[in-house]
Amino acid sequence: MSYPKILTIQDISCVGQCSLTVALPIISACGVETCVLPSAVLSTHTAGFSGYTFRDLTDDMPPVNEHWKKEGIKFDAVYTGYLGSTRQVQYVIDIIKSSKKQGGVVIIDPAMADNGKLYPGFDDDFVAAMRTLCADADYVVPNMTEACLLTGIEYKTEYDEAYVKKIIEALVSLGARNVIFTGISYKKGKNGVVVYENGNYAYYEHEMLSNSCHGTGDIYASAFVGALIRGKSSYDAARIAADYTVECIKATAEEENHWYGAKFEPVLPKLISMINE
Q1: What is the DSSP annotation of 46-114?
Q2: What pLDDT does 257 receive?
Q3: Residue 116, strand partner residues
Q4: pLDDT (tens digit per residue) in 46-63
Q5: For residue 7, what are the CA distances in angstroms to 10, 83, 84, 221?
Q6: How far apart are alpha carbons 195 and 179 in whole angstroms?
Q7: CA dihedral angle for residue 24, residue 30, residue 31, residue 36, rounded to 10 degrees
């Protein structure tokens, strides 16, 4: 795969450093041709802003897919993030089936919840639809809240390895082949990611910063995808994405009142360097 081409399907939040405004530059910086299909257009993201506009693009998806079929357009990988509606999920499944090359990779970030609750506008029907999307994923990249919602396991803020493995096993039972489980902390002051692939578990631990930023899940998932498609192992891709995200959070801490997102742009040279190592 000398020059891979990926499709990413998620929303455009015009302001807020998340979703497509993060995925497109990060994956492109990794050296991967990045094609996009917006699921919705929002004036801002939904965390911390009020009165934001929302344009659902569900009805635009089938015509786009039909045009791609006519042109014979195919992708080496498909990566989905925030989707705009429950009805949209089936269209996304259809697009993956028709536009992914044989042997292509599907990465699903079930971007719908954090800190124990769903994002605004989502409900149990959306969670059920997301389960069907994750059921045929090569990699699913959930945080703890999303993983618990997908599996029906009680959400906890204090847990052990047995609890985490129980959730991963439930995700695999849904149909996901491999799991990149983010935000897993086994000790105070540390955070990390559990990588489950082909029946094997690995854990990459990194420092836990005192400040947090909106959009870091999108930054992480996009960096993981870029590194993976560039040929890194899933563990190395997870490690690179974690280290890059930590650097983005550190850079943001230096900026007063930058509460709505993370300063990922100035740190892109570090990501490129890690990809090229």
Answers
A1: SSS--S--EEE-GGGHHHHHHHHHHHT--EEEEEE---S-HHHHHHHHHHHHHHEEEEEEEEE---SEE
A2: 83
A3: none
A4: 888 889 999 999 999 999
A5: 10, 14, 17, 14
A6: 6
A7: -20
- Between CA 133 and CA 119 the distance in angstroms is 18
Residue 194 amino acid letter: V
Mean pLDDT of the chain: 95
- Per the document, the length of the chain is 277
Residue with tokens 């994956």: 27
* Token reading at 92: 């996304």
pLDDT 10s digits, 20-33:
999 999 999 999 99
Interstrand relation of 178-181 and 139-140 (parallel, antiparallel or unpaired): parallel
State which residues of the chain have pLDDT below 50. none
How far is C-alpha 188 from the chain's CA centre?
Answer: 25
User: What is the SS3 assignment for 255?
Assistant: coil
Nearest to 37 by CA among 65, 4, 77, 9: 9
In this prediction, residue 256 carries a pLDDT of 81
Picking from 253, 229, 252, the residue whose alpha carbon sits closest to that of residue 241 is: 229
* Phi, psi of 135, deg, nearest 5: -65, -20
The answer to whether the CB of 208 falls within 8 A of the CB of 185 is: yes
- Alpha-carbon distance of 124 to 145, in angstroms, equals 13
Count H helices, E strands: the chain? Answer: 9, 11
Dist CA 70 CA 214 (whole Å): 39
Domains identified in the chain and CATH numbers: 5-276 (3.40.1190.20)
Residue among 152, 78, 142 at smallest CA distance from 113? 142
pTM of the model: 0.95
- What pLDDT, on the 0 to 100 scale, is given for residue 84? 85
Q: Under a CB-based contact definition with an 8 Å cutoff, are residues 97 and 11 in contact?
A: no
